[in-house]
Amino acid sequence: MERTRWYKDKVFYQVWPRSFKDGNGDGMGDLLGVLEKLDYIKNLGCDGIWFSPIYPSPGADCGYDISDYMDIAPEFGGMEAFRKVLEGAHARDMKIVMDLVVNHTSDEHEWFQKSRQRISPYTDYYIWRPDPGNGKLPNNWDSNFEGKAWTFDEVRGEYYLHLFAVKQPDLNMDNPLVREEVKKILRFWLDLGVDGFREDVITYISKKEGLPDDHLFPIYKGMPHYNHGPHVHEYLTEFKRDVLDHYDCFTIAEAPLVQPGQALSYIREDSGQLDMMIQFQCMCADCLFTDYLPTRFHLRKMKRAFSSWQYRLKGRAWNSLYIENHDHPRIVSRYGSETFWAESAKMLAAMYLFQQGTPFIYQGQEIGMTNWRPSDPDMYEDVQTRYHYAHSNLKKSPGQRLQALWRSSRDSARTPMQWDGGENAGFTTGTPWFYVNENYRQINVASQEADSNSILNFYRKAVKLRKSLSCVRYGVYREHFPLSDKLYMYSMTGERQKILVVCSFCEKPLRYGVPKGFNLDTARLVLCNYPGPNQRVLQPYECKVYLWQ
Ligand code: GLC
Ligand code: CA
Predict the structure, then answer these.
(1) Distance from the first to the final alpha carbon of the chain
(2) What are phi and psi of 413, to 5 degrees?
(3) Which residues pair with 288 in a beta bridge?
(4) Is the pTM of this model over 0.85?
């Protein structure tokens, strides 16, 4: 089947379903709610949707613990609602991408239930090890969420590996039967008409033989032995050859700790097994590898991350562009400024939307939603947050520990979407499953619809502009003044067209120069986040996009 690579012209919207829109008043977001909002997403300029998991799940990791891969959870409206969403999306020329979570399942999945009882053929579907005795574990690996990576199962009398929560046992991808199951899942959704997959921590699926102890990493012990493991390319090639190549679909892989050079081994257009990668480097300008090790924001670190992906992938592979998703606190509260809230939210949009790649916008990002700051640690829902709170920073004061969560927790960006200034922010007519951010009266879709200068309308303009510029898709990226720690400036140069994107990350007015070959007198200012005449001094968090053609 000819691959059209349609994804290169798309802008995706990420729906984290439980907090997007409740369609039936039970307090939980669902697919009826999505159906109501398809036009909203389309009007933003987005023509693709990535759904975080909507399969049946006990909800230990908000849906990333799946108990049935070939169904839609009843609380989201079941298959019937999903078919309507799929039809509605396709009728609007929008694509639908599902989350494929096959590094692990829920412990309530039938496979695990049978595997723990050693019922054939499920006996080796998971990674089981005998009890080494003396209180020892099979190896020294950490889970990403809840302490050590091993839990003893009384039923089977053995330990199972879980790189995430206790309720998320890792599948044994070395077992060919498990790989056949993955292919069945892929075919099932593709035959139903979905357009592609976002593959959850897919670089973890192949563990080093013998599961050796890790003597290298101080935290996340074990990662060098399972991230980019020995057979990962082989298995991904198998999925591609046997299934994906037979459909005009696309895949985007989540890949913790990946550098552009290594990413190419997965996503090179001429030889890769996948189409795009969600890398984390761009999200680490104010932390060390994880949000739980926060640092001051370093603009140069952020610029280096964006630029290195632009330079290294050029002509070889296609970038994915994002600054928010359900795993990170809100960007305006991190790389932007809540004082210059609207200005910085718009600037951040311009900052990433004009680069080469396919952009993703996470629900609420387009209205500048900010971090949620609960008054009590018990209000957190996320398994990772709760574990972290109970086990880390124990010497700090309760206030300091809570504040650390505001900055680090995934729940900071998982509160219900703020649709209007009415009760429950218009998210539900019932009792919301989770807390609504108290600032919903100031920050909501309805008020921004009514304001032509809003963040929402800026996003609409920016996405539309992006789509009209061939130099963004085909041009050459170049960063200017890389040493500045206040300014991010880059150009995209095409054959007959070029743009210069100028972004201030400074709270004070900032003078700036332009690189040789860019004469502002002959340019058109096509996007800006400040009204009034075009000045040669940037206002706080000002951004400008200049066009020559
Ligand atoms: C990915 C998901 C995250 C989930 C984890 C385990 O990182 O994005 O939300 O908790 O994998 O599935
Ligand atoms: Ca509902």
Answers:
(1) 37
(2) -120, 20
(3) 290
(4) yes
Distances (CA, A) of 183 to 86, 157, 474: 21, 30, 34
503 close to 496: Cβ distance less than 8 angstroms: no
| Residue 533 clears pLDDT 90, i.e. is over it | no
Element (H, E) at 511: strand 510-511
Q: Which tokens in the block code for residue 178? A: 């498990």
Q: How far is CA 156 from CA 119, 123, 169, 264, in A?
A: 11, 10, 14, 41
List CB-based neighbours of ion ligand 2 within 5 Å: 22, 24, 26, 28, 30
Segments of 93-241 assigned E as strands: 95-100, 128-129, 150-153, 158-161, 196-199
Token pair 């000819």 in the structure block, residue: 2
Question: Tokens in use for 166?
Answer: 């206790």
Residues forming a β-bridge with 24: none
At 474, list the tokens.
């085909």
Residue type for 323, please? Answer: I
What's residue 532's pLDDT?
81
Rounded distance from Cα 60 to ligand 1 centre (Å): 11
Give the ligand whose atoms come closest to the C-alpha of residue 144.
1
Write out the catalytic residue numbers.
200, 254
pLDDT of residue 2: 83
Residue 477 corresponds to which tokens in the numbers above? 């990226």
Picking from 365, 361, 528, the residue whose alpha carbon sits closest to that of residue 461 is 528
pLDDT at 338: 98
